[in-house]
Design goal:
Elements (H helix, E strand, L loop, with lengths): L1 H23 L6 H7 L7 H6 L2 H26 L6 H18 L6 H9 L5 H9 L2 H12 L6 H28 L8 H17 L11
Helix pairs in contact: 1-4, 1-6, 4-5, 4-7, 4-8, 5-8, 5-10, 6-9, 9-10
Length: 215
């Protein structure tokens, strides 16, 4: 019984912190505010259950990335030999957008991710959690194998562009849904299709060579 209560408390804290971080930013929210909003009389509850703020951020990220990994592992396993760029881009996008679509609304994870990814001190946590899963590495290897002629520096540049587009497009859609404002696509699955279309175009765009040593 005690363990069940502790687990329930941890879940309330995680959900509350995710929402507050998404809406206000990570460093604008104190552990005390999280504890109070989660209905904890003890203002040290966050520190007791999670330790530092960085540990709390990691726990929030991990409870989503674990579910996303299940979907991506299945999708990667279904990609046939010789699949085109679009198949691998879908393995990047669909697990995240379908995960957001499966969550009860309103959701906060996309905005939470955008907040953390723009914070220099915490950004590494999201990157580490994403790279810790085998399916992402398999997806990136498959994608890069489709683009053997793409120069390494352009590949790195476009990977950064793709990451920014995914993070902030999802965050903006989530914000619009929370505020009840119109969105370009009716559902998260359709939004994922739009992202896949855009990212395929980004990866397959021509490379313009200008001055020597400059692209």
């Amino acid at each position: 019984m005690k363990t069940a209560r502790a687990d329930a408390t941890r879940e309330r804290i995680l959900t509350t912190a995710e929402r507050l971080f998404a809406e206000h930013g990570v460093y604008a929210v104190s552990n005390r505010q999280i504890s109070e909003a989660a209905g904890q009389g003890n203002n040290t509850a966050v520190g007791y259950h999670f330790g530092t703020k960085a540990d709390l951020v990691r726990a929030i990220a991990r409870r989503h990335t674990e579910e996303i990994e299940v979907t991506r592992t299945r999708m990667v396993g279904e990609v046939p030999a010789g699949a085109p760029v679009r198949a691998w881009v879908a393995c990047l996008v669909r697990p995240a957008t379908d995960h957001l679509g499966a969550l009860p609304g309103p959701t906060w994870f996309a905005r939470f991710g955008a907040q953390v990814m723009t914070d220099p001190a915490l950004r590494g946590i999201m990157v580490e959690e994403a790279l810790a899963v085998p399916s992402l590495h398999r997806t990136l290897r498959g994608l890069h194998a489709c683009l053997p002629a793409l120069p390494a520096d352009v590949r790195a540049e476009r990977a950064d562009m793709a990451r920014q587009l995914m993070v902030h497009t999802c965050a903006e859609r989530e914000r619009a849904l929370a505020e009840g404002t119109p969105t370009p696509r009716a559902g998260w699955h359709a939004a994922g299709t739009g992202l896949i279309d855009a990212l395929v175009g980004l990866w397959l765009a021509p490379v313009t060579t200008t001055n020597e040593g400059e692209r």
